[in-house]
Structures are given as C-alpha cells and as structure tokens.
Write a structure and sequence with these properties.
alpha/beta; ROK; five-stranded mixed beta sheet; 309 residues; Nucleotidyltransferase, domain 5; 2 domains; globular
C-alpha cells in the first residue's frame, strides 16, 4: 500500500496543502491566503489548526506517514527552526525563530519535516526528472520574493547555518533601497513580484496588472526590472557552472513575460566562454500542487534516509 503524506507549501502570498502519494500525485488540494496562518493568533498554532482540520475533514487519522512543509524562509541547519519570514509577519512575530517541527510533532503526533520552499520545489523536479547524482542543478523562482536553491550531485547546498543560496538577499552596489529583511540593497529590492507591483502602481495603475509585460516590455523601467532579475541568476551561474537551471514562479509565468529579453540579460552577465550559454534551461512544472508535492516528497526522502541510519 502506497504511503501518504501531507504536503504544505507556504508562500508569501498563498498557502497550499494536499495529500500526496509516493509518486507525487496530489489529492484534496487546498489553497488559501497565507494570512490565514498569520493573522489573529500564534502562527504555528494557526498552522496546526489548519492541518488538524484538514486531517479530520478527509478522514486521514492514523493514515499519514509524514508531514512536509516548505517555508519562504531560511531554515536552520537541523531543519527544525524557521529563521525569519519577512512576508508572513504578525503581532507575535509570525514563524520567526519558532521550532515548528517540535511544536507540530508534539501536537499532531506525525513525523514532520520542514525545508526552504525553493528546495522543495526543486526537489520535485529532481525526483520527476531523475536528476539525483547528475551534476549541478540550480532552481530560481521569481514570485513575491526570489526563491533559490542549489543541488550538488546528491544533496542541497545548505551551508553552515542552513541558509545558503539565498540570492534574493545578495546586495546590489550603491543601493539606497531597503529590503523587508532589514538589509540595504538586496536583489529582492529590484527583482521581486512585490517590486513589479510597485512599478505597476507607480506608472500604469489604470491598466490591468497582468498586462504589464504585454504593454510595457520595451519601457526603460521594465528593462531595468529584467536586468535586476538577471543579475543574481548570472552571478550564481558564474559561481557554480551548472548543468541545468530550473526557472519558475509567478513572475515568470505571467502573460507575455519577455523571456528572450530576460535570457539576453543573463547571457550578457555570464562569464565567457564558459559557462556562457552552455547549460540547459528547464521551465518549472506549473501545476498548482507542485510545491505541495515537493514538500511531501522531501518528507518521504527524509523518512528513507532515517530508515538507513
């Protein structure tokens, strides 16, 4: 009998949850505003309430192998504590500094595994394409912020404190903009979905936001935005010389996104002759449950690894 896990994908804007099988298929997909697990209470308890209600509604009591969760935040090296989610704040600090694993396992009695959301998104692609042990894979997800992860052969690059590959917070030179994280000049000050909405509200608020690329890709402000998107990606390409790049996220998926212009900027900044343009470009799967499936598949993988020890 196939094992089942709950997969949860928490973004800066949306919260998604589903029941996932070991092959990555998703049932009972649920989507809501992320504010539902931040407003009006302690964030971890609100999240536990959501999971508990979901289990009860679908009759899953005693049938789950694990819970996997992706957060839009760096996670500590032990993969238990959420460091900070600047897009999910509330009066009690949101998820910042919370040992989510301990709290959820204590309340729900189900093995729980958390990870950075971009890692879970990329893990889904690695599992589906069978890339384990096959070179270097980089994931870039342009959404509310910039999600990023690097997979080296057989594992993610996590770093000493678990916070590696957070290129949305690399600094831009001589910047006077401040990021939601508190630092000055982060890439997300120039290339996030949040910034794109600011551009729209400043320049073309009378138009539909979804038409911004169709109507204004040739404008100076959008060209600068695309360059801002390209710089952190080209920087990481030059560092890792990857085999492939997985790209996705709400910005990349917008109507008439000027993809050729974007890649022209990336190629302008990559080192010549190599890496140059010598890497595969793979568009991330667009199904709404990909982050949910990736979170659950990550949980299954952690269960397998623990079983070997």
């Amino acid at each position: 009998m196939s094992k089942k896990a709950i997969g949860i994908d928490i973004g800066g804007t949306n919260f998604r949850m589903g029941l996932v099988s070991e092959d990555g298929s998703v049932e009972y997909f649920y989507k809501a505003s992320s504010r539902e697990i931040c407003d009006n209470g302690e964030a971890v308890e609100l999240l536990a309430d959501k999971i508990e209600l979901y289990i009860q509604e679908h009759g899953m009591q005693g049938q789950l192998s694990a819970i996997g969760i992706g957060f839009p935040s760096p996670i500590d090296a032990a993969r238990k504590v959420v460091y900070n989610c600047p897009n999910l704040q509330n009066s009690t600090g949101g998820f910042d500094g919370r040992n989510v694993v301990h709290s959820l396992q204590q309340r729900l009695g189900i093995p729980t595994f958390i990870n950075k959301d971009a890692c879970n998104l990329l893990w889904y692609e690695i599992e589906m394409h069978k890339w384990k042990g096959s070179g270097i894979t980089i994931g870039f997800y342009y959404g509310t912020g910039i999600g990023n992860s690097v997979y080296l052969g057989n594992g993610f690059l996590d770093g000493k404190h678990g916070v590696a590959c957070d290129v949305g917070h690399i600094p831009f030179y001589l910047s006077d903009r401040y990021c939601t994280c508190g630092n000055r000049g982060c890439a997300e000050c120039y290339a996030s979905g949040r910034v794109l909405r600011d551009i729209w509200q400043e320049h073309w608020p009378e138009e539909e936001f979804t038409d911004i690329f169709r109507n204004h890709s040739d404008s100076k402000v959008i060209q600068e935005y695309l360059e801002g998107m390209a710089i952190p990606m080209a920087t990481e390409i030059n560092i890792f010389d990857p085999d492939r790049i997985v790209v996705g996220g709400g910005v990349m998926d917008m109507k008439d996104f000027p993809e050729k212009m974007f890649w022209d900027y990336v190629y302008e900044f990559t080192r010549k002759p190599f890496p140059g343009t010598d890497f595969a470009i793979v568009h991330a799967s667009k199904e709404p449950g990909v982050g949910v499936a990736g979170s659950a598949l990550y949980a299954f993988e952690q269960l397998r690894l623990k079983g070997k020890n």
